[in-house]
Amino acid sequence: MAWNSPLTAVANTTLTAAQWNTFIRDNLNAQAPALANTAGAWLVSTGLNTLAMRVPAVDYQSISDSTTSTSFGDLDPPGGTVTVVTGPQALVTIGCQISNSTAGCGGRASVDLSGATERVADDINVVGAESGTASDTFKLSWTTIYTPINPGTNIFAMKYRASIGGTATFSGRLMSVVPF
Q1: Which of 110, 111, 109 is nearest to 155 (CA)?
Q2: What is the pLDDT of residues 3-62, one digit of tens each?
Q3: What DSSP string describes 34-61?
Q4: What is the value of pTM for the model shown?
Q5: What is 56-179's CATH topology?
């Protein structure tokens, strides 16, 4: 609901029910206190004189899993997946602990988008590391603003791959999405 510029009052003029509803009731319902109905949510501007509520989301998967694939895919169980209503952008943070059984190899975690926006995981928006020895373990995080994305319900899902070989292991997988 958009906020309407109020009318200018004129002395001795009666305010109609339609005017009251448009300029008083509807304007009050378009303000922050009336729109904020979920704890932890925040309000964003979606256009001129228009606000929308957005609810951040977090997913954490503590179970460790491994892959030998050098293409992005799911782990078992999948982890780091959130569904949120977004505007044209979202602040996304992913993090995990990565190790690889083979020296000189590593792992990568990225994000797939589905729902209102379709975008596959890639090596541009990625957290990853290459190990010097087979015992190296890295705990990493990465944050960026995904833009542009299509407004609506978007599903952000972490995907994983071994970087150049070996067995990449991922644990403590975390995704946080703050929609705008």
Answers
A1: 111
A2: 889 989 899 999 999 999 999 999 998 888 888 889 999 999 998 888 999 999 999 999
A3: HH--STT-EEEEEETTEEEEE--EEEEE
A4: 0.88
A5: Jelly Rolls (2.60.120)
Q: How many CB atoms lie within 10 A of CB 18?
A: 8
Structural domain boundaries in the chain: 1-55, 56-179
Band (pLDDT 50/70/90 cuts) for residue 77 is: very high
Residue 130 to residue 22: CA distance in whole angstroms = 61
Q: Residue 128 and residue 141: Cα distance in Å, rounded?
A: 9
Alpha helix (H) residue ranges in the chain: 17-20, 26-29, 32-35
Cβ(53)–Cβ(87) below 8 Å: no
